[in-house]
Design the sequence.
Protein backbone atom coordinates (compact mmCIF):
# COMPACT_ATOMS: atom_id res chain seq x y z
CA UNK A 1 0.00 0.00 0.00
CA UNK A 2 1.64 3.13 -1.23
CA UNK A 3 0.94 5.94 1.25
CA UNK A 4 -0.62 4.04 4.11
CA UNK A 5 2.33 3.87 6.51
CA UNK A 6 3.18 7.53 6.39
CA UNK A 7 -0.13 9.29 5.76
CA UNK A 8 -1.53 11.33 8.60
CA UNK A 9 -5.16 11.76 7.74
CA UNK A 10 -7.03 13.93 10.17
CA UNK A 11 -10.84 13.81 10.28
CA UNK A 12 -13.24 16.12 12.06
CA UNK A 13 -15.37 13.90 14.26
CA UNK A 14 -18.81 15.34 15.00
CA UNK A 15 -18.93 13.10 18.08
CA UNK A 16 -15.84 14.55 19.76
CA UNK A 17 -16.26 17.96 18.08
CA UNK A 18 -12.60 18.01 17.11
CA UNK A 19 -10.19 16.83 14.46
CA UNK A 20 -8.76 13.39 15.18
CA UNK A 21 -6.03 11.30 13.59
CA UNK A 22 -7.85 8.70 11.50
CA UNK A 23 -7.15 5.21 12.81
CA UNK A 24 -9.25 2.51 11.14
CA UNK A 25 -10.40 -0.47 13.19
CA UNK A 26 -9.06 -3.12 10.82
CA UNK A 27 -6.73 -1.59 8.26
CA UNK A 28 -6.53 -1.85 5.32
CA UNK A 29 -10.32 -2.37 5.49
CA UNK A 30 -12.61 0.56 6.11
CA UNK A 31 -16.33 0.54 6.72
CA UNK A 32 -18.10 3.65 5.45
CA UNK A 33 -21.85 4.11 5.83
CA UNK A 34 -23.69 7.11 4.38
CA UNK A 35 -27.40 7.84 4.64
CA UNK A 36 -28.76 7.79 1.11
CA UNK A 37 -31.85 9.42 -0.38
CA UNK A 38 -35.50 8.91 0.50
CA UNK A 39 -36.71 8.18 -2.99
CA UNK A 40 -40.00 10.00 -3.48
CA UNK A 41 -38.94 12.91 -5.68
CA UNK A 42 -36.28 14.24 -8.06
CA UNK A 43 -32.76 14.60 -6.70
CA UNK A 44 -31.84 18.19 -5.90
CA UNK A 45 -28.76 20.04 -4.70
CA UNK A 46 -29.37 18.83 -1.18
CA UNK A 47 -28.81 15.29 -2.47
CA UNK A 48 -25.74 16.21 -4.48
CA UNK A 49 -23.73 17.59 -1.57
CA UNK A 50 -23.53 14.49 0.65
CA UNK A 51 -23.13 12.32 -2.46
CA UNK A 52 -20.16 14.39 -3.68
CA UNK A 53 -18.69 14.85 -0.18
CA UNK A 54 -18.59 11.14 0.57
CA UNK A 55 -17.58 10.30 -2.97
CA UNK A 56 -14.50 12.43 -2.27
CA UNK A 57 -13.93 10.58 1.01
CA UNK A 58 -14.41 7.19 -0.72
CA UNK A 59 -12.07 8.15 -3.57
CA UNK A 60 -9.35 9.57 -1.32
CA UNK A 61 -9.33 6.64 1.11
CA UNK A 62 -9.15 4.29 -1.88
CA UNK A 63 -6.30 6.35 -3.33
CA UNK A 64 -4.40 6.03 -0.04
CA UNK A 65 -4.61 2.25 -0.48
CA UNK A 66 -7.49 1.35 1.81
CA UNK A 67 -10.09 -1.21 0.84
CA UNK A 68 -13.29 0.67 1.47
CA UNK A 69 -16.65 -1.02 1.82
CA UNK A 70 -18.98 1.86 1.09
CA UNK A 71 -22.62 1.33 2.03
CA UNK A 72 -25.15 3.97 0.96
CA UNK A 73 -28.74 3.00 1.62
CA UNK A 74 -31.98 3.74 -0.19
CA UNK A 75 -34.77 4.82 2.15
CA UNK A 76 -37.96 3.41 0.72
CA UNK A 77 -40.09 2.91 3.82
CA UNK A 78 -40.69 4.43 7.23
CA UNK A 79 -39.63 8.02 6.49
CA UNK A 80 -42.74 9.93 7.53
CA UNK A 81 -43.65 13.49 6.68
CA UNK A 82 -41.73 16.15 8.63
CA UNK A 83 -39.22 13.49 9.74
CA UNK A 84 -41.60 12.77 12.63
CA UNK A 85 -43.21 9.69 14.14
CA UNK A 86 -46.61 10.74 12.82
CA UNK A 87 -47.93 11.52 9.38
CA UNK A 88 -47.97 9.74 6.08
CA UNK A 89 -45.03 7.76 4.71
CA UNK A 90 -43.38 9.98 2.06
CA UNK A 91 -43.31 7.18 -0.50
CA UNK A 92 -46.81 5.90 0.24
CA UNK A 93 -48.11 9.47 -0.15
CA UNK A 94 -46.48 9.87 -3.54
CA UNK A 95 -47.84 6.46 -4.58
CA UNK A 96 -51.35 7.49 -3.51
CA UNK A 97 -51.18 10.81 -5.37
CA UNK A 98 -49.80 9.24 -8.54
CA UNK A 99 -51.86 6.06 -8.24
CA UNK A 100 -48.77 3.87 -8.38
CA UNK A 101 -47.44 0.96 -6.38
CA UNK A 102 -45.02 2.30 -3.74
CA UNK A 103 -42.24 0.20 -5.29
CA UNK A 104 -42.98 1.78 -8.67
CA UNK A 105 -42.31 5.18 -7.10
CA UNK A 106 -39.12 3.81 -5.52
CA UNK A 107 -37.88 2.27 -8.77
CA UNK A 108 -38.57 5.43 -10.76
CA UNK A 109 -36.66 7.72 -8.39
CA UNK A 110 -33.80 5.28 -7.78
CA UNK A 111 -33.19 5.15 -11.53
CA UNK A 112 -33.40 8.94 -11.77
CA UNK A 113 -31.06 9.32 -8.78
CA UNK A 114 -28.48 7.00 -10.31
CA UNK A 115 -28.65 8.89 -13.59
CA UNK A 116 -28.00 12.19 -11.80
CA UNK A 117 -25.20 10.73 -9.69
CA UNK A 118 -23.56 9.15 -12.73
CA UNK A 119 -23.54 12.49 -14.52
CA UNK A 120 -21.91 14.07 -11.45
CA UNK A 121 -19.32 11.27 -11.67
CA UNK A 122 -20.25 10.06 -8.19
CA UNK A 123 -19.05 6.47 -7.92
CA UNK A 124 -21.62 3.84 -7.04
CA UNK A 125 -21.27 2.54 -3.47
CA UNK A 126 -20.09 -1.03 -2.80
CA UNK A 127 -23.52 -1.94 -1.43
CA UNK A 128 -26.78 -0.02 -1.87
CA UNK A 129 -29.29 -1.74 0.42
CA UNK A 130 -32.99 -0.86 0.48
CA UNK A 131 -34.72 -0.41 3.84
CA UNK A 132 -37.71 -2.43 2.58
CA UNK A 133 -35.37 -5.33 1.81
CA UNK A 134 -34.19 -5.48 5.44
CA UNK A 135 -37.43 -5.66 7.42
CA UNK A 136 -36.41 -8.95 9.09
CA UNK A 137 -33.09 -7.51 10.27
CA UNK A 138 -34.91 -4.49 11.65
CA UNK A 139 -37.50 -6.61 13.49
CA UNK A 140 -34.71 -8.74 14.99
CA UNK A 141 -32.92 -5.66 16.28
CA UNK A 142 -36.12 -4.22 17.75
CA UNK A 143 -36.83 -7.55 19.49
CA UNK A 144 -33.39 -7.40 21.09
CA UNK A 145 -33.97 -3.84 22.34
CA UNK A 146 -37.38 -4.81 23.77
CA UNK A 147 -35.87 -7.86 25.50
CA UNK A 148 -33.17 -5.71 27.04
CA UNK A 149 -35.84 -3.42 28.44
CA UNK A 150 -35.07 -0.30 26.44
CA UNK A 151 -38.19 -0.30 24.30
CA UNK A 152 -41.88 -0.83 25.02
CA UNK A 153 -44.94 -1.74 23.02
CA UNK A 154 -48.12 0.32 22.96
CA UNK A 155 -51.08 -0.52 20.68
CA UNK A 156 -48.92 -2.39 18.16
CA UNK A 157 -46.20 0.28 18.01
CA UNK A 158 -42.79 -0.01 19.69
CA UNK A 159 -40.99 3.02 21.11
CA UNK A 160 -37.44 3.46 22.33
CA UNK A 161 -37.29 4.48 25.97
CA UNK A 162 -35.05 7.54 25.77
CA UNK A 163 -35.30 8.41 29.45
CA UNK A 164 -34.16 4.97 30.55
CA UNK A 165 -31.33 5.04 28.02
CA UNK A 166 -30.27 8.43 29.28
CA UNK A 167 -29.84 7.12 32.81
CA UNK A 168 -26.82 5.05 31.79
CA UNK A 169 -25.89 6.67 28.47
CA UNK A 170 -26.04 10.13 27.01
CA UNK A 171 -28.89 10.81 24.59
CA UNK A 172 -27.64 13.96 22.85
CA UNK A 173 -23.99 12.91 22.76
CA UNK A 174 -23.79 13.62 19.01
CA UNK A 175 -26.06 16.63 18.59
CA UNK A 176 -25.21 18.28 21.91
CA UNK A 177 -28.91 18.45 22.81
CA UNK A 178 -30.10 17.92 26.35
CA UNK A 179 -32.96 15.59 27.15
CA UNK A 180 -34.73 18.15 29.39
CA UNK A 181 -34.82 20.65 26.52
CA UNK A 182 -36.02 18.01 24.09
CA UNK A 183 -38.95 17.10 26.31
CA UNK A 184 -40.05 20.68 26.89
CA UNK A 185 -39.65 21.63 23.21
CA UNK A 186 -41.65 18.75 21.76
CA UNK A 187 -45.04 19.67 20.40
CA UNK A 188 -47.98 17.58 21.55
CA UNK A 189 -48.93 15.44 18.58
CA UNK A 190 -51.56 12.75 18.63
CA UNK A 191 -49.00 9.92 18.66
CA UNK A 192 -47.20 11.47 21.62
CA UNK A 193 -50.02 10.25 23.80
CA UNK A 194 -48.84 6.68 23.27
CA UNK A 195 -45.31 7.47 24.29
CA UNK A 196 -44.20 7.44 27.89
CA UNK A 197 -42.06 10.42 27.12
CA UNK A 198 -42.20 13.01 24.32
CA UNK A 199 -38.54 12.35 23.41
CA UNK A 200 -39.12 8.63 22.80
CA UNK A 201 -38.96 7.62 19.14
CA UNK A 202 -40.65 4.87 17.14
CA UNK A 203 -38.78 1.66 16.35
CA UNK A 204 -41.90 0.09 14.85
CA UNK A 205 -45.21 1.68 13.91
CA UNK A 206 -48.56 -0.02 13.74
CA UNK A 207 -50.03 0.22 10.25
CA UNK A 208 -53.53 1.65 10.20
CA UNK A 209 -55.92 -0.16 7.82
CA UNK A 210 -55.34 2.39 5.04
CA UNK A 211 -51.55 2.19 5.30
CA UNK A 212 -50.34 0.29 2.23
CA UNK A 213 -46.71 -0.38 3.16
CA UNK A 214 -47.01 -3.03 5.89
CA UNK A 215 -45.28 -6.14 7.16
CA UNK A 216 -46.17 -8.74 9.82
CA UNK A 217 -44.23 -8.53 13.08
CA UNK A 218 -44.46 -9.83 16.66
CA UNK A 219 -46.43 -6.63 17.40
CA UNK A 220 -48.87 -6.97 14.51
CA UNK A 221 -48.84 -5.48 10.99
CA UNK A 222 -46.72 -2.40 10.72
CA UNK A 223 -43.56 -0.83 9.38
CA UNK A 224 -40.16 0.14 10.86
CA UNK A 225 -39.38 3.57 12.27
CA UNK A 226 -37.13 5.67 10.04
CA UNK A 227 -33.97 5.49 12.20
CA UNK A 228 -34.06 1.71 12.46
CA UNK A 229 -33.00 0.92 8.90
CA UNK A 230 -29.55 2.52 9.12
CA UNK A 231 -28.75 0.77 12.41
CA UNK A 232 -29.83 -2.59 11.00
CA UNK A 233 -28.12 -2.25 7.61
CA UNK A 234 -24.95 -0.65 8.99
CA UNK A 235 -24.61 -3.54 11.44
CA UNK A 236 -25.42 -6.18 8.83
CA UNK A 237 -22.84 -5.04 6.28
CA UNK A 238 -20.16 -3.31 8.37
CA UNK A 239 -20.44 -4.96 11.79
CA UNK A 240 -21.35 -3.85 15.32
CA UNK A 241 -18.70 -1.18 15.17
CA UNK A 242 -17.39 0.48 12.03
CA UNK A 243 -15.16 3.37 11.02
CA UNK A 244 -17.12 6.19 9.39
CA UNK A 245 -20.80 7.15 9.30
CA UNK A 246 -21.66 10.14 7.18
CA UNK A 247 -24.59 12.21 6.09
CA UNK A 248 -25.91 15.74 5.88
CA UNK A 249 -26.01 17.91 9.02
CA UNK A 250 -29.80 17.85 8.81
CA UNK A 251 -29.64 14.16 9.78
CA UNK A 252 -27.64 14.73 12.96
CA UNK A 253 -30.79 14.94 15.02
CA UNK A 254 -32.93 12.95 15.51
CA UNK A 255 -31.79 10.41 12.90
CA UNK A 256 -28.15 9.82 13.84
CA UNK A 257 -28.63 10.51 17.54
CA UNK A 258 -31.31 7.81 17.63
CA UNK A 259 -29.16 5.45 15.58
CA UNK A 260 -26.42 5.66 18.21
CA UNK A 261 -28.89 4.99 21.05
CA UNK A 262 -30.62 1.97 19.51
CA UNK A 263 -27.40 0.38 18.16
CA UNK A 264 -25.60 0.89 21.45
CA UNK A 265 -28.32 -1.02 23.27
CA UNK A 266 -28.78 -3.75 20.66
CA UNK A 267 -25.05 -4.42 20.15
CA UNK A 268 -23.62 -3.43 23.50
CA UNK A 269 -21.29 -0.84 22.01
CA UNK A 270 -21.32 2.49 20.21
CA UNK A 271 -21.66 1.75 16.48
CA UNK A 272 -19.40 4.34 14.89
CA UNK A 273 -15.88 5.70 15.45
CA UNK A 274 -15.99 8.80 13.24
CA UNK A 275 -19.19 10.68 12.50
CA UNK A 276 -18.86 13.04 9.54
CA UNK A 277 -21.48 15.60 8.46
CA UNK A 278 -21.53 17.82 5.43
CA UNK A 279 -22.99 21.29 5.81
CA UNK A 280 -26.04 22.65 4.03
CA UNK A 281 -26.59 24.53 0.81
CA UNK A 282 -28.25 27.91 0.43
CA UNK A 283 -29.42 29.57 -2.78
CA UNK A 284 -28.70 33.28 -3.06
CA UNK A 285 -28.23 33.30 0.69
CA UNK A 286 -31.60 31.66 1.38
CA UNK A 287 -32.45 28.25 2.71
CA UNK A 288 -33.61 25.89 0.03
CA UNK A 289 -37.23 24.82 0.14
CA UNK A 290 -40.35 24.27 -1.89
CA UNK A 291 -42.23 26.99 -0.02
CA UNK A 292 -39.49 29.50 -0.89
CA UNK A 293 -39.82 28.75 -4.60
CA UNK A 294 -36.09 28.04 -4.92
CA UNK A 295 -36.12 24.25 -4.78
CA UNK A 296 -34.36 23.16 -7.96
CA UNK A 297 -33.80 19.65 -9.13
CA UNK A 298 -30.41 18.66 -10.50
CA UNK A 299 -32.07 18.25 -13.90
CA UNK A 300 -33.20 21.90 -13.65
CA UNK A 301 -29.56 22.91 -13.17
CA UNK A 302 -28.32 20.76 -16.02
CA UNK A 303 -31.00 22.18 -18.36
CA UNK A 304 -31.09 25.75 -17.02
CA UNK A 305 -34.76 25.18 -16.36
CA UNK A 306 -35.63 27.58 -13.54
CA UNK A 307 -36.31 31.31 -13.33
CA UNK A 308 -33.47 31.71 -10.81
CA UNK A 309 -30.95 30.26 -13.28
CA UNK A 310 -29.38 32.50 -15.90
CA UNK A 311 -28.24 29.47 -17.87
CA UNK A 312 -27.68 25.72 -17.73
CA UNK A 313 -24.82 24.48 -15.55
CA UNK A 314 -23.13 21.25 -16.43
CA UNK A 315 -22.84 18.43 -13.88
CA UNK A 316 -19.06 18.96 -13.66
CA UNK A 317 -19.58 22.65 -12.93
CA UNK A 318 -21.85 21.69 -10.03
CA UNK A 319 -19.33 19.09 -8.83
CA UNK A 320 -16.38 21.45 -9.07
CA UNK A 321 -18.35 24.22 -7.37
CA UNK A 322 -19.10 21.94 -4.42
CA UNK A 323 -15.49 20.81 -4.17
CA UNK A 324 -14.38 24.42 -4.02
CA UNK A 325 -15.81 24.57 -0.51
CA UNK A 326 -14.72 22.41 2.39
CA UNK A 327 -17.56 20.02 3.15
CA UNK A 328 -18.16 21.43 6.63
CA UNK A 329 -18.74 24.98 5.32
CA UNK A 330 -22.11 26.20 4.16
CA UNK A 331 -22.24 26.68 0.43
CA UNK A 332 -24.22 29.39 -1.30
CA UNK A 333 -25.35 28.89 -4.86
CA UNK A 334 -25.61 31.93 -7.09
CA UNK A 335 -25.28 32.40 -10.83
CA UNK A 336 -22.17 34.49 -10.28
CA UNK A 337 -20.43 31.85 -8.18
CA UNK A 338 -21.42 29.06 -10.57
CA UNK A 339 -20.08 30.95 -13.55
CA UNK A 340 -16.80 31.55 -11.72
CA UNK A 341 -16.62 27.80 -11.00
CA UNK A 342 -17.33 27.06 -14.65
CA UNK A 343 -14.36 29.22 -15.69
CA UNK A 344 -12.06 27.71 -13.05
CA UNK A 345 -12.95 24.18 -14.08
CA UNK A 346 -12.30 24.99 -17.71
CA UNK A 347 -8.83 26.33 -16.86
CA UNK A 348 -8.01 23.17 -14.96
CA UNK A 349 -9.24 20.87 -17.73
CA UNK A 350 -7.63 22.83 -20.57
CA UNK A 351 -4.33 22.63 -18.65
CA UNK A 352 -4.69 18.83 -18.56
CA UNK A 353 -4.87 18.81 -22.34
CA UNK A 354 -1.91 21.21 -22.57
CA UNK A 355 0.03 18.94 -20.25
CA UNK A 356 -0.22 16.16 -22.81
CA UNK A 357 1.27 18.40 -25.47
CA UNK A 358 4.22 20.06 -23.73
CA UNK A 359 7.73 18.66 -24.13
CA UNK A 360 10.38 18.24 -21.50
CA UNK A 361 13.78 19.89 -21.71
CA UNK A 362 16.91 18.00 -20.68
CA UNK A 363 18.52 19.36 -17.50
CA UNK A 364 15.86 22.03 -16.96
CA UNK A 365 15.96 23.23 -13.32
CA UNK A 366 13.24 22.03 -10.94
CA UNK A 367 9.95 23.92 -10.86
CA UNK A 368 8.84 22.74 -7.42
CA UNK A 369 6.34 20.04 -8.40
CA UNK A 370 7.26 18.20 -5.16
CA UNK A 371 5.96 21.13 -3.18
CA UNK A 372 2.67 21.20 -5.12
CA UNK A 373 2.18 17.49 -4.62
CA UNK A 374 2.92 17.78 -0.91
CA UNK A 375 0.42 20.65 -0.74
CA UNK A 376 -2.30 18.52 -2.32
CA UNK A 377 -1.75 15.67 0.13
CA UNK A 378 -1.49 17.99 3.12
CA UNK A 379 -4.81 19.58 2.18
CA UNK A 380 -6.63 16.29 1.70
CA UNK A 381 -5.11 14.88 4.90
CA UNK A 382 -6.52 17.87 6.73
CA UNK A 383 -10.15 16.70 6.87
CA UNK A 384 -10.52 16.42 3.09
CA UNK A 385 -9.84 20.09 2.47
CA UNK A 386 -10.55 20.05 -1.26
CA UNK A 387 -10.52 23.85 -1.82
CA UNK A 388 -6.93 24.04 -0.57
CA UNK A 389 -5.96 21.06 -2.76
CA UNK A 390 -7.59 22.84 -5.73
CA UNK A 391 -5.58 25.99 -4.95
CA UNK A 392 -2.40 23.86 -5.14
CA UNK A 393 -3.55 22.44 -8.46
CA UNK A 394 -3.92 25.95 -9.83
CA UNK A 395 -0.22 26.40 -9.04
CA UNK A 396 0.33 23.44 -11.36
CA UNK A 397 -1.87 25.12 -13.99
CA UNK A 398 0.32 28.22 -13.80
CA UNK A 399 3.44 26.11 -14.39
CA UNK A 400 1.86 24.18 -17.29
CA UNK A 401 0.85 27.40 -19.03
CA UNK A 402 4.22 28.98 -18.41
CA UNK A 403 6.00 26.01 -20.02
CA UNK A 404 3.57 26.05 -22.94
CA UNK A 405 4.23 29.74 -23.57
CA UNK A 406 7.98 29.18 -23.38
CA UNK A 407 8.52 31.22 -20.21
CA UNK A 408 9.96 28.22 -18.40
CA UNK A 409 11.18 24.70 -19.10
CA UNK A 410 10.43 21.44 -17.39
CA UNK A 411 12.60 18.35 -17.08
CA UNK A 412 11.32 14.88 -17.98
CA UNK A 413 11.13 13.71 -14.39
CA UNK A 414 8.99 16.65 -13.26
CA UNK A 415 6.80 16.43 -16.38
CA UNK A 416 6.03 12.81 -15.50
CA UNK A 417 5.41 13.77 -11.88
CA UNK A 418 3.04 16.53 -12.97
CA UNK A 419 1.10 14.14 -15.19
CA UNK A 420 0.79 11.69 -12.32
CA UNK A 421 -0.35 14.46 -9.99
CA UNK A 422 -3.07 15.45 -12.45
CA UNK A 423 -4.22 11.89 -12.93
CA UNK A 424 -4.38 11.28 -9.17
CA UNK A 425 -5.84 14.51 -7.92
CA UNK A 426 -7.88 16.03 -10.73
CA UNK A 427 -9.32 12.84 -12.18
CA UNK A 428 -9.16 10.08 -9.53
CA UNK A 429 -9.62 11.98 -6.27
CA UNK A 430 -11.63 15.08 -7.21
CA UNK A 431 -13.39 12.97 -9.83
CA UNK A 432 -13.48 15.70 -12.46
CA UNK A 433 -13.86 14.80 -16.13
CA UNK A 434 -13.64 16.80 -19.31
CA UNK A 435 -17.06 17.71 -20.64
CA UNK A 436 -15.72 19.05 -23.92
CA UNK A 437 -15.63 16.90 -27.05
CA UNK A 438 -16.93 13.43 -26.40
CA UNK A 439 -19.35 14.55 -23.73
CA UNK A 440 -22.86 13.59 -24.69
CA UNK A 441 -24.69 16.62 -23.38
CA UNK A 442 -22.31 19.15 -24.94
CA UNK A 443 -22.37 17.28 -28.19
CA UNK A 444 -26.16 17.01 -28.31
CA UNK A 445 -26.51 20.65 -27.37
CA UNK A 446 -24.15 21.62 -30.19
CA UNK A 447 -26.19 19.56 -32.65
CA UNK A 448 -29.45 21.01 -31.36
CA UNK A 449 -28.20 24.56 -31.79
CA UNK A 450 -27.47 23.72 -35.43
CA UNK A 451 -30.94 22.24 -35.95
CA UNK A 452 -32.62 25.21 -34.26
CA UNK A 453 -30.63 27.53 -36.52
CA UNK A 454 -31.75 25.59 -39.65
CA UNK A 455 -35.36 25.76 -38.50
CA UNK A 456 -35.02 29.51 -37.88
CA UNK A 457 -33.54 30.02 -41.35
CA UNK A 458 -36.46 28.08 -42.89
CA UNK A 459 -38.96 30.28 -41.11
CA UNK A 460 -37.15 33.45 -42.13
CA UNK A 461 -37.53 32.48 -45.77
CA UNK A 462 -41.18 31.45 -45.08
CA UNK A 463 -40.43 27.77 -45.76
CA UNK A 464 -42.93 26.61 -43.15
CA UNK A 465 -43.06 23.06 -44.53
CA UNK A 466 -39.41 22.57 -43.55
CA UNK A 467 -39.66 24.33 -40.18
CA UNK A 468 -42.76 22.27 -39.27
CA UNK A 469 -41.07 19.08 -40.41
CA UNK A 470 -38.10 19.81 -38.14
CA UNK A 471 -40.41 20.53 -35.21
CA UNK A 472 -42.47 17.35 -35.76
CA UNK A 473 -39.38 15.16 -36.05
CA UNK A 474 -38.02 16.62 -32.82
CA UNK A 475 -41.38 16.12 -31.10
CA UNK A 476 -41.34 12.46 -32.08
CA UNK A 477 -37.93 12.23 -30.34
CA UNK A 478 -39.49 13.77 -27.21
CA UNK A 479 -37.57 16.99 -27.78
CA UNK A 480 -39.51 20.14 -27.07
CA UNK A 481 -38.54 23.40 -28.77
CA UNK A 482 -39.87 26.64 -27.32
CA UNK A 483 -39.63 30.07 -28.93
CA UNK A 484 -39.32 32.90 -26.44
CA UNK A 485 -38.15 36.48 -26.22
CA UNK A 486 -34.61 35.40 -25.45
CA UNK A 487 -34.48 33.05 -28.42
CA UNK A 488 -35.29 29.39 -28.90
CA UNK A 489 -34.60 26.84 -26.18
CA UNK A 490 -34.89 23.08 -26.28
CA UNK A 491 -35.48 20.47 -23.63
CA UNK A 492 -36.15 16.78 -23.31
CA UNK A 493 -39.73 16.05 -22.28
CA UNK A 494 -39.92 14.05 -19.06
ZN1 LIG B 1 -29.68 6.98 7.85
Sequence:
Amino acid sequence: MKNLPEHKLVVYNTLSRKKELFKPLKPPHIGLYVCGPTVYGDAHLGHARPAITFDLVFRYLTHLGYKVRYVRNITDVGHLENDADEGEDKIAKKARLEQLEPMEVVQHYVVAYHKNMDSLNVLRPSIEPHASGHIIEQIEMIKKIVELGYAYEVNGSVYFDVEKYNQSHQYGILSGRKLEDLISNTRELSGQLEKKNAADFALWKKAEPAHIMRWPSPWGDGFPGWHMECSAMGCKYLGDEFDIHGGGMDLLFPHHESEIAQSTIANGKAPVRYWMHNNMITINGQKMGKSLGNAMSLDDFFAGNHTLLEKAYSPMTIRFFMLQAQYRSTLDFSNEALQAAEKGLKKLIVAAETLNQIQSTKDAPGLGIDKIEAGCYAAMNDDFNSPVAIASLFEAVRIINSVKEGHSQINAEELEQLKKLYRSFVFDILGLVSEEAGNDHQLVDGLMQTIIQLRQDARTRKDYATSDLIRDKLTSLNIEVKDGKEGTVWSLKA
Observations:
- The longest strand covers residues 242-248.
- The chain has three domains: 20-278, 282-429, 438-492.
